[in-house]
Amino acid sequence: MATITNIEDLKRIYRRRVPKMFYDYAESGSYTEQTFRENCSDFSQIRLRQKVAVDMSNRSTQSSMIGEKVAMPVALAPVGMTGMQCADGEIKAALAAKRFGVPFTLSTMSICSIEDVAEATQHPFWFQLYVMKDEDFVDAIIERARKANCSALVLTLDLQILGQRHKDLKNGLSAPPKMTLPTIINLATKWGWGLEMLKTKRRSFGNIVGHAKNVGDVSSLSSWTAEQFDEKLDWGKIARIRDQWGGKLILKGINDPDDARLAADFGADAIIVSNHGGRQLDGTASAIRMLPDIIRAVGNQVEVHMDSGIRSGQDVLKALALGARGTFIGRAFIYGLGAMGEEGVTKALEIIHKELDVTMALCGERDVHNLGRHNLLIAQDFL
Ligand code: FNR
Predict the structure, then answer these.
(1) Taking the domains of the chain in order of start, what are their residue ranges?
(2) Calpha distance 285→38 (Å, rounded)
(3) I need a surface site. Which of 42, 73, 187, 274 has the fewest CB within 10 A?
(4) How far from each other are the two terminal CA atoms of the chain, in whole angstroms?
(5) Residue 232 has pLDDT above 90, yes or no
(6) What are phi and psi of 152, to 5 degrees?
(7) pLDDT > 70: what percent of the chain?
(8) Fold of 7-382
(9) What ipTM goes with this model?
(10) In a mutational test of the pocket of ligand 1, which residue from 21, 25, 208, 276 has the highest number of ligand atoms less than 8 Å from its CB?
């Protein structure tokens, strides 16, 4: 554990431990992966301003996201098939988030169901919804999230149609995975992962199997999901879901100032500036590059969060200094989970927290709320 000092270390262990098809599933973007790469590399174009000889004692990273207290403004993003990176992965990640004091978001496409996570954690979490054509399914899952005391609905808007990831197609990744010879060999060689998987019954999509029309078993799941993402999603449908949910609503997947303005006028509690970690529209700008324009467009009308490309506490600090109220991490916690389960997610959160804290101090700040553009030297094309 002592030799694991950054997120990259967790990624290396994760790569060794998890079958290639699931590693590739996480570690890929759509088409040329330009956006996937730039999400990370654009952070390094923002420089920090060093400040010396200021009292840096009594620092605090505590804040709030949509009114909920957080130990640092970093939530775990919804990640489909988290339970294939590690047995009962969603439960383990949610428990690590609970202990650390940050929000956990459960994906519609999770392996553990809403009820599994609620029962295991006894703690509120956020539920992410993909809008499906089957309205009965959407209505029922909103009801299930309400019953499980989910404290926010995160509605993902940037996946009405699937961005193509070459690696997934080449690996034959589908839900459920097709058992080709290379797949079987790969799964068999990752025996640590395999033994854990054998111990759990949760190996298929708990939110969907048995709950959606025509999906009684795993074998009919693949065709159902492929055709279910609602291409007709529009603001009218979003309003229907908002009214039905009635609670806190976060709109995820906004990467343009005009869309952000629409979302703010719509009355969402927060938006997440995001390009789905580079998995949807390849060639769109990185989320960190779009953040300043979006903040300018919406002012204080709506809370702005961001994700896509965060791999360190320094990245978090840059997003906050550009005006985000909160951030989400996707792959950064998946690396930890795949490497070492719950402990690995905790490690990822500790690493990011420490980096945020130390960087804040060296920038001469004691409180995350005081971070701002004055802490940054920003390349001209970011302004
Ligand atoms: C995702 N993301 C995602 N988003 C969502 O709303 N529902 C989902 O089910 C998924 N599934 C998913 C799977 C995997 C493997 C990844 C990597 C991502 C997107 C996710 O919530 C988030 O926007 C990105 O992960 C943020 O980028 P980083 O932090 O991974 O760079």
Answers:
(1) 7-382
(2) 8
(3) 187
(4) 40
(5) yes
(6) -155, 150
(7) 97
(8) TIM Barrel (3.20.20)
(9) 1.00
(10) 276
